[in-house]
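Posting for a labmate who doesn't have an account.
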Amino acid sequence: MSERNCVLVGAPVDSGKRRPGCLMGPDAFRTAGLAKALIDLGHSVSDLGNLSPDAHEPDDAGDHLFALNRTIGWTKALARTAQEAFTKGLPIFLGGDHSLSLGSVLGAANHAAAQGRPLFVLWLDAHTDFHTPQTTDSGNLHGTPVGYFTGRGGFDGFPEVPNPVPEENVCMIGLRSVDQAERQALGDSKIRRHDMRDIDENGIKGPLTDFLNDVAAQNGMLHVSLDVDFLDPSIAPAVGTTVPGGATVREAHLVCEILHDSGLVTSLDLVELNPFLDERGRTAHLMVDLCASALGRRVFDRPTRSYQ
């Protein structure tokens, strides 16, 4: 197995939704032994600590605008740090709510463009997060990252997206909570999407393998964004947006094992962990185990592609 330098980036983002607690996520991942798990696999680990958002204009007009401005600050800080982290190894962003992907994917896309390679994004989530600030009924910005990095309009005040991820380069797996506005927008898009009925009927390996074959064929870089709510809440309760019917432990490990076998992963988000809602750390430990599977933990060795 090829050794990598895993660059941990703590992003205690808690401005993308209303239920507090995700700001404790990065330290919960550390406490659950993420660094040791990666080192035991032969990787080195550089921990950049927890970031702070860029300064944003103070706002006295209410919580919504404060959250918007703070999320803009996080997006700027994360995009800049992501590009720096790529020069050191494999960035692993420790969330924090899913609005952190506004910045992590922006930085990944800019880095990929600088390398002359396309960026692909695997979105493992119960939700599509394809809203814009104008279309979301809840106003929660953790439901907007895919809309942002694919170049949808309406993100006034956010950093420009000079290298939007082509819709056909995005694959969503695990969907089971999609509102009408997102359903219509997705119907008009080229985003690949697989809900849990599709997974139940056809399995999880096929759509993932098809997507990875396209990444490899185009010499693409692959950003994986793993939301706790991709998993069924019976096994991963520490999330504020529980949606029954999610991936099982084995389905999730299979996804991560296939990702490792592909040798294509170049950056990773671990998001929406709310330790306040956990049960003696079980969700944090499961997410650490999944990350370890994606980076090479296995029962028996199998042939893998060389890392990109």
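Reply:
Got it, the structure tokens are right above this. The chain has a mean pLDDT of 92.
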